[in-house]
Design brief:
about 150 residues; alpha+beta; four-stranded antiparallel beta sheet; 6 strands; elongated
């Protein structure tokens, strides 16, 4: 579990040793009925329970009570040409934290920001509609004066 890239050694300098994991852990949104001290991750197939526990304890300083992993088979789907496409298999790690630690899934898209973005989008759409009305008003009557009507 060390890095693939090792820094170059220059004679006279102390040996450089970097021990960083080559693995990734993808946080999965918790179900509504899960306890607050339960966290789920999607991990690579090669990662073991001990690797997960060491990863969280050593790098992120998170105390871990229990780690359980389970294998999941990727879905098999048909595309529009009736070819079968299989998604890759993955492993799910179910981590139990101590009772006093409560995990809160981060709010990546806060509602206030979403409301503001929606208002901005609506305003821009209204401006575009007004501009199109002005341009479309007499597009086929270029030779008729404006006082004649629509």
């Amino acid at each position: 579990m060390s890095t693939r890239v090792y820094p170059t050694f220059i004679k006279g300098n102390p040996r450089l040793r970097i021990f960083l994991p080559n693995f990734f852990m993808k946080l999965v949104k918790p179900k509504s009925n899960e306890p607050a001290n339960h966290v789920r991750f999607i991990i690579p197939l090669e990662m073991t329970d001990d690797d997960v526990k060491n990863y969280l304890e050593k790098i992120y300083n998170v105390p871990v009570c229990q780690v359980r992993t389970s294998l999941y088979e990727g879905e098999i789907k048909k595309n529009h040409r009736n070819y079968l496409i299989k998604e890759p298999d993955f492993r799910m790690a179910h981590i139990t934290l101590p009772e006093d630690i409560k995990f809160v899934f981060p709010d990546l898209f806060p509602q206030a920001k979403k409301d503001k973005d929606d208002e901005d989008q609506k305003r821009l759409l209204d401006q575009a509609a007004d501009l199109m009305k002005q341009r479309r008003r007499n597009w086929d009557r270029k030779d008729i004066p404006s006082w004649f009507g629509l």
